[in-house]
Amino acid sequence: MLVSILHRATGSGMATVGTALLVWFLAAIAGGAESYATFRDVFTTDAGNLNIIGYVIGIGLTACLFQHMMTGIRHLVLDLGAGFELKTNKRYAVLTMVASVTLTVLFWLYLGIIK
What we know:
Elements: H1 2-31, H2 33-43, H3 52-79, H4 86-111
């Protein structure tokens, strides 16, 4: 049940937050250099690194993406007719969470942001 709820929540979260950020980003670009600088300053420090808001939004959206993707793969397996046994289904549900956390950490390590 938790994985199903997370799947819906991450999909809605990505759609809502992602769309709002995209619209804000496009409006900031259209508004000129000063408007874009304001947008950029919300998420970065003066040195160009992410600030706490940038980390929360960036890592949060990345975690949502990987959780939604892993649950989607789980649903694909279920749609193929496999994994309906209670033990197997629970194992797949736990694996979606483990895989999403692992992929999020690996992604940010690859970017060189988390050290």
